[in-house]
Write a structure and sequence with these properties.
The protein has 97 residues and is α+β, with helices and mostly antiparallel strands. It has one helix at 71-96; strands spanning 11-20, 24-29, 34-39, 54-59. It has 2 domains: 1-64, OB fold (Dihydrolipoamide Acetyltransferase, E2P) (Beta Barrel); 67-97. The longest helix has 26 residues, at 71-96. The chain starts with 10 loop residues before the first strand and ends with a helix.
Length: 97
């Protein structure tokens, strides 16, 4: 594993829950910073999780580890994308019949 060049600068992030699924929670980040979807196993809560609740967590900056491309990951992503497209086309063809 490559060591990070920059030290941690912990930042408090906040957001609002916008989706709740069996295996994940989706959050809109405050300040128009984007959208985050996290697995339920990484979500800490003492209350039932509901859309509209506010959440917060500590985060640091993302640092690129190097210029290398993970070819296996790209290949898996291409395969996934191709299969999703094939399934959409198949479903579309079934609706037309």
């Amino acid at each position: 594993m490559t060591d990070l060049k920059y030290g941690d600068k912990i930042i408090r992030m906040e957001g609002v829950i916008v989706e709740v699924h069996d295996g994940s929670v989706a959050i809109d980040l405050k300040g128009r910073l984007g959208y985050l979807k996290v697995p339920m196993r990484m979500f800490i809560s003492d209350y039932p999780i509901k859309v509209g609740q506010e959440v917060a967590w500590n985060m640091s900056f993302v640092e690129q580890l190097g210029p290398e491309i993970n070819e296996k990951y790209v290949s898996n992503l291409d395969t996934y994308t191709r299969r999703q497209k094939e399934m959409r086309e198949k479903n579309q063809n079934n609706k037309e019949v």
